[in-house]
Structure formats: C-alpha cells, structure tokens
TrEMBL record:
It comes from the Bacteria. The lineage of its organism: Bacteria, Bacillati, Actinomycetota, Actinomycetes, Micrococcales. PANTHER family: TREHALOSE 6-PHOSPHATE PHOSPHATASE (PTHR43768). It catalyses: alpha,alpha-trehalose 6-phosphate + H2O = alpha,alpha-trehalose + phosphate. Removes the phosphate from trehalose 6-phosphate to produce free trehalose. Its cofactor is Mg(2+). Pfam families: Trehalose_PPase. Its EC number is 3.1.3.12. It is an enzyme of class 3 (hydrolase). Pathway: Glycan biosynthesis; trehalose biosynthesis. This is Trehalose 6-phosphate phosphatase. Belongs to the trehalose phosphatase family. The keyword Ubl conjugation does not apply. Keywords: Hydrolase, Magnesium, Metal-binding.
Length: 259
C-alpha cells in the first residue's frame, strides 16, 4: 500500500481512535472518476469494496453525500451501497428506517414547482442553442451539462444560462465541474453532514469530495473531523489527495487502523 501523506496519516489515526465515527463520501469525482456522460459514471471497484468493508467495522457509519438525485445515484452505484444516501445536495435523503423517523423529504411547494418549471423551460432554450450541451433533471433542480461541448461553446452556454435565470427569485445557482445547476431547494451538503453528525451521535466525521458544492461540507468540519479534497484547487478541506484512484488506499488504511 503506498504511503499516505504523513499529516493525513496522523489525522486518520486520530479519527480512527474515536468510538463512533461517520465516513461520508461524495460520488462523482471522488468515488467515481469524472466521465463525459453522467450515466456512465461508476464507483471504482476498490473504493466500493473498501467502503463496504469499512461499513462492517463496529462504530463506523458510512454515507454517500451526493449532488445526484437518488434515482440517478441508484443507477450508477449498484448494490451494495451504504444504507445512508443523501441526494440532490441534501434535498433527498434515503436512510434506514431506524433513522428515517428523524427525517422526511420536504415536498416542493406549488410555488417552487412552478419556479422549477420556468427554470427548466429557460435552460432547455439554452441547451438547444449550444451544440453538445445537455440537461439533467432532478426533483428540485435542473442541471446544464457542457462537458461534451467545445470550450468556447461551453463557456457561452454557461454564461447564457446565468443570464437567463438572473431575474428569478428563489433559484439558487450551484457551480460545478462543467455544469451549472439551478435549484429551488436551499439545503446543502454542510447541513446534511451536520444532521447526520447529530442524528448518528458520532464523535467525528470524515468527508471527502472534489467539487465546489463539497466546500459546504468541508466548512462545517471541526478539529476532530477530517476533510479531504480530491484533486487540486482552493478548498476549505485540511487535507487533499490527487485523484479518486488514491481513495482505496486511504480507506484501507482506515480499516486497518480500526482493527
Ligand atoms: O456531489 P457529486 O456526487 O459529486 O455530484 C455532483 C454532480 O455530479 C455529476 O456531474 C459531474 O459528474 C459527471 C459524470 O462524471 C460529469 O459528466 C459532469 O461534468 C460533472 O459535473 C452529476 O451529473 C450532477 O448531477 C451532480 O450534481
């Protein structure tokens, strides 16, 4: 197993020493390498296997905390998956029944549903005007994808989408990797992690993610927690790894530290 960065290794050892912990992973760009088409993403087999093994350690809870909607997450992350899956950046939560009593997804109000309809209509115009731009539909958001467009067209499509939605109150725009997501839901990954921390009553949280929206997760972490940015770029996470390919060894180190 390759050596982990010494400071990350020390942080993991401290984390592993707690009785009850939560290990939460983002999906795209973290468990799965980024790919052109969202439907083609899959978790790296070694990551999925180590995550499953970790879930069997006494006192360890595991969760996927994803920007994807839950239906799409189920399609790209075959079983076995963690029992706790947070989708749509926190708008949807799939949790075991013993935890479910503490949470119910809030249905959209009639106003939010109408607003999402307007957002989608406007983004459909933008996507239709740019070659290789496409849309992804979520229960509370619509996402413009430009990964397959040429750089110039991608930049134009994103700018046009921002402009098209600028006058809509109640719509939050989320930047991501070659995407712009317009959501009418106002939760985020940080709120979801805090909810899990309290509900599971864990003493420490490890969260790994690669994208802009994962920063909300890193920002709620404290001294006992471990935040790991996957890839380069500015981040509130204290630690980083280079790519999703580094995650299996990190999880395996944690497994051996817990045993
Ligand atoms: O929070 P995550 O689980 O990382 O989800 C964030 C977004 O991931 C997906 O888009 C990203 O991955 C795609 C597949 O690799 C890639 O084609 C796209 O360019 C990336 O932005 C997903 O489609 C979005 O809905 C998620 O919000």
């Amino acid at each position: 197993m390759p050596e982990l960065d010494p400071s990350l290794h020390a942080a993991l050892a401290g984390f592993a020493g707690h009785q009850r912990v939560l290990v939460a992973l983002d999906f795209d760009g973290t468990m799965s390498p980024l790919v052109d088409r969202p439907q083609d993403a899959r978790p790296l087999p070694q990551t999925a296997a180590a995550f499953e093994q970790l879930a069997a350690s006494p006192g360890v809870y595991t969760a996927v905390v994803s920007g994807r909607n839950l239906q799409s997450l189920r399609e790209v992350y075959p079983q076995p998956r963690p029992g706790i899956c947070i989708g749509s950046h926190g708008a949807e939560r799939l949790v075991p029944s013993w935890l479910g009593a503490n949470w119910q997804d809030e249905p959209l109000t009639a106003e939010q549903t109408a607003l999402l309809g307007t957002v989608t209509q406007r983004l459909e115009h933008v996507a239709a005007a740019h070659e290789n731009a496409s849309l992804e539909y979520k229960p509370s958001a619509t996402v413009l994808h430009v990964r397959q467009a040429l750089p110039d067209a991608a930049a134009k499509a994103l700018a046009q989408a921002r402009q098209a939605l600028a006058d809509l109150d109640g719509v939050k725009l989320l930047d991501g990797k070659a995407v712009l997501e317009a959501t009418v839901h106002h939760g985020d990954k940080g709120q979801s992690l805090q909810w899990l921390r309290e509900t599971l009553d864990v003493q420490a949280v490890l969260f790994a993610g690669d994208d802009v929206t994962d920063e909300n997760g890193f920002r709620v972490l404290g001294a006992e927690d471990v935040g790991i940015k996957v890839g380069s770029g500015p981040t509130a996470a204290a630690y980083s790894i280079s790519s999703p390919a580094d995650l299996p060894d990190l999880l395996k180190s944690l497994i051996s530290m817990r045993n």
